[in-house]
Amino acid sequence: MNFRTLASIATLLTVLTAPLQAETYPSKPVTVIVPFAAGGPSDVLARALADKMRTALKETVLIENVTGAAGTIGVTRAVRSPADGYTLSFGHLGTHVVNGAIYPLPFDLVNDLDPVALLGANPMLVVSKNAIPAKTFKELIDWLKANQAKATLGTAGVGSGAHFSGVFLQNLIGTHASYVPYRGTGPALQDLVAGQIDIIVDQASNSLPQVQAGTIRAYAVTDSKRLSALPDVPTVDEAGLPGFHVSLWSGMWAPKGTPKEIVAKLNEAIRAAIDDPAVQKRYAELGLEPPAQDQRTPEALRTHQKAEIEKWWPVIKAANVKP
Ligand code: MLT
User: Which of 1, 137, 153, 322 could form a disulfide with 219 if both were Cys (CB 3.0 to 4.6 A apart)?
Assistant: First the structure.
C-alpha cells in the first residue's frame, strides 16, 4: 500500500471519527500554552480564564509556560501539537501578528492555526522606576533624550508587546535607548520595581497594581481615554504625544485541523469564562476590555488577526526590526 493511499485512509478516518471525538471531548485535561513567563500579563489573563473554563468543560485546564524568542517558541510548540483540542495556543498582537514580520517562523500564523476566540484587550502604560527624576510624560521624554546612552527599556523579547511599543515610542521621540529582554514582562516588572531597569511600555494589566501600590510611576496610557482604574494617569494625547496608541489584544488558537465541533465547545467555554462575574471584576481591576458581544466568534478572531497583520507588518518591516 503506497503512502498516498495510507494518507487518504488516515484523512478519511480523521473525518469519520471527528464527530465522535467531539462528542466525548474533553475526556482528559486541556493544556493552554502561554508563551511568556508566569506572573506576567499573558499568564495572569490565561489563568483567570482557565479557572472558569474548567467549569464549562468539566475538565482540568492546565497552563504551560513555554517561553523564549518573544513567544515564538511557545507558539511553535502549540502549532506542532495534535489537532485534537487538548493543546491550545494563548497569544496576542505580538505573538500572533508582529512576530510574523520579524522571525522566520516555521509555520504560517493564519493558515497553521484555527482561531478559537478573542479574549480582550488593554492599552499599554508607560511606566518607570521611581528613581527617575521625571514627574510628567514630557519630563520623562526629556530625561530619555538626555540619558539615552545608558537608559534601559525592559521587554519580553524582540517582537513582544513591550518591545514593539517601545520601538514605536522611541521612533516618535527620536531616542535609541537600549532594550533588556526578559522571558515575560512579569520578570521585567520585578526588575523595574527593584530599580534594575528604567522604563517599560507595559500592558496596563501588568503594571497597574504596582502603580497603585506606588512602587513604580506611570506617565501615560496609550489610548484616547484614561483607564478607570488609573484616573490620574493622562492619555498620550493629553500628555503631548498624540497618536501613540497601542491596544494589545489577546486571543486563543488551536492547531490547524482541530474539529470544528471541538473549537465550538472551547469557544463556548471561553465566552462563559469571560461572562463570569469574578472574571469581569478581574478585567475591570486590570484595565482589560472584554471583546464586544459581536466579536466573540472564532471568525471574529480570524478577521481581526488578518486586519492587524495588514496594519502592522508594513510598519514592523519598515522599521527593520531584527530578532
Ligand atoms: C508582551 O510584552 O508581549 C507581554 O506583555 C509579555 C507577557 O505577557 O509577559
Answer: 137
